[in-house]
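Single Protein Entry

Contents — chain, fold
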Amino acid sequence: MKFIVDESMSALGIKKHCGRHCKNVDPQAPLSDVFFKKQKEMEEWALKCDIDEIFNHPVIQGYTDMLQSVGRSIKKICRPCRLLSETFNTEVLSRISTVLSTFIMSNHCVRFLAIGGHDLGKVDGQIEFAVSKKEDVFLPILSTESVVAKTDYMYRDLKGIMAWLDVRDGENYKFDDKTKKRNLYYSGKCQYFRRNACRSAQTDSKRFSGVYAAAGI
C-alpha cells in the first residue's frame, strides 16, 4: 500500500507520521487476563484524574493548537479528552470486539495521543495525509455527514476521507466482525510519543489478544 504525506501537513508542524499494520486479526479472539487487569487500572485512573489538568497537557495542547490554526473551535474536542469523558460517564471502557477493545486499550495506555484505527480491507489504493484543499463531506462513525472545509486536515484513500481533524474516524473504514487486517495511525507533533505509541501497540496487541502488529510506516 502506498502512503503519501502532502507538503501541506508540514505547514501545520506535522513532518512525520507513524502507524502500524496488524495482520492475522481475529475479531473473536479471547482477551487475555493481562487485558482485563490493564483495563481495570485504566478505569480507576480515568475516574480519578483531573480533566482540566489533562486538557492543559502539552500533547493535548498540541491538538487544540492545530484545530485553532485551521480556524476550528476547540469545542470539537480532541479524541483523548472525549474518550476520557465517555469513561467518566459509563465507568467502563468499550467492550465490543477483540479488534476494537485492544485498539481502545492501546489508546488509553499511551495516554492522550489520538489514534486512528481502520480496516485495511476497506481501504482503496493509497492513503494520503493532507489538508483537504477543497470543500468535501465526511461520514464519521455512528454519526451523520460533516462538512469538510478547504483548510481542514485529514487523511483519505481513493474513495473518500478516512479520518478528519484527528477527531473522528470514518464509518466506511471501521473495524467489524470480518476485519482481518487493521491499520493504526498515531497523530500529533511529538515524535517521541508517537514512536512509543507504535511500540506499545505491537506489544499490547500480543499481550491483550495475540493480534500481531506486522509493520510500521
Observations:
- The chain is about 35% helix and 20% strand.
- The first helix runs from residue 33 to 48.
